Amino acid sequence: MKTVQLGAGERLTVLNLNREGAVPLKITRAAQDIIEGVRASGDEALRRYCKDFDGVEVDEFRLPQERIDAALDNIDPAFLAALEKAAEQIRDFHQREVQQSWFTTRADGTMLGVKVTPVRAAGIYVPGGRAQYPSTVLMNAIPAKVAGVERVVMVTPPQRDGGISPYTLAAAKVAGVDEVYTVGGAQAIAALAYGTQSIPRVEKITGPGNAYVAAAKRLVSGEVGIDMIAGPSEVCVLADASANPAVVAADLMAQAEHDPLAACYLVTCDAQFATEVERAVEVLVAQSPREDITRTSLDNEGVIVVAADMDAAVDAVNTIAPEHLELHCENAMGLLGSIRNAGAIFVGAWSSEPLGDYVAGPNHTLPTGGTAMFSSPLSVDDFVKRSSVICYTPQGLMNDAPATQAMARREGLWAHALSAGLRRRVLQQGEGSVSADALQGEDLTAVAWPDDEAAVVMRGAALDAAARMDKEA
């Protein structure tokens, strides 16, 4: 692991980190070609790409419903128990995120509010390359179902026999997935975004994948909603001398074993502790069945930051903005308020990050690559949309029209102002005052852009109407 030593008063910068940044242009171009192929040829292109990339000839992409219904018959009871426990706790957590539509009424009767509506169809991408990820099925499908999505579609690369892992399929059944298609890569993202002869399009795509999947999601974003551009997994451990070096080493390895590109960060104020963690890694990694992947990740993407004090250490964590953050410190809960940037925060030595990967309840689909500075974990909110609701009364219109017209005038938008001005005229002079005949030859600019005084703009045209009535009386 690379070590960055920070002196007194020195702060970590993003230049100290080994981050690749955006998806390489070469991969983006390849993904674009695949997307265009699927848009042009649909299922024919999907079959071609499945043969070229997965080495599988697929006749029917959709898995028969009876295979999904029988999924739980083919797994061991202990795994099924783990799935059901995880699903229950994930569902419970996400049910607390559900937002209701709301409305409020002003004193003048104007009603304003928000209407919350789930998307009709969501596609979840489940990787199937180096490993199978039943947990990803739960983490993506359950919040979608909690949100009220009618049609949840899962796509995942076919195995060599053209089928699907029984564990992934069991997770789909437990999570309530409606349709399963054995297709992966950028071509699966294209199919979800644009539809093919056998795969109807969706409105939102979520879930992690390799660089080609990430590039494809970026390219189709705008045509369809996406959750985020997910990069390699990452963890940051903030630890003081009270932490156990072997436990910290294992937690770093838990991310490193995902991918040779996974990033692992250790931030501490104790250089000796950092040395003990590295020694523990050497002891533990020698017995790992994924030793090569783990070593490659730690050697190439691992960073140790030795800070002068805890304030600088916390600042370093916020600069890293990690996907997963573990606080192995005596005063872990006390540090929580200082953490601004992290996808998921694991507080205290007992809060192992893998608990969050599988069963804790909060979502494990998290912002990576520093995007936790402005992004959030996958949630129910990702599967709903909010519509503003605006319902004015005549009095409300009279209150707000003058300010609307004044702002439209300064922006030079005449018809914007006229839209409010004609309604104002109806209320002041009656419906006949805005007939085509009545407006013929009228100075409509005076209707659109009246010279209202500041008091009228602030308090509304009702003030002007009241003054006129008093004068007529």
Automatic annotation (TrEMBL):
EC category name: oxidoreductase
Pathway it works in: Amino-acid biosynthesis; L-histidine biosynthesis; L-histidine from 5-phospho-alpha-D-ribose 1-diphosphate: step 9/9
Family per record: Belongs to the histidinol dehydrogenase family.
Residue positions binding Zn(2+): 255, 258, 357, 416
Cofactor: Zn(2+)
Keyword line: Amino-acid biosynthesis, Histidine biosynthesis, Metal-binding, NAD, Oxidoreductase, Zinc
NAD in keyword set: yes
UniProt protein name: Histidinol dehydrogenase
GO biological process: L-histidine biosynthetic process
Origin: domain of life: Bacteria
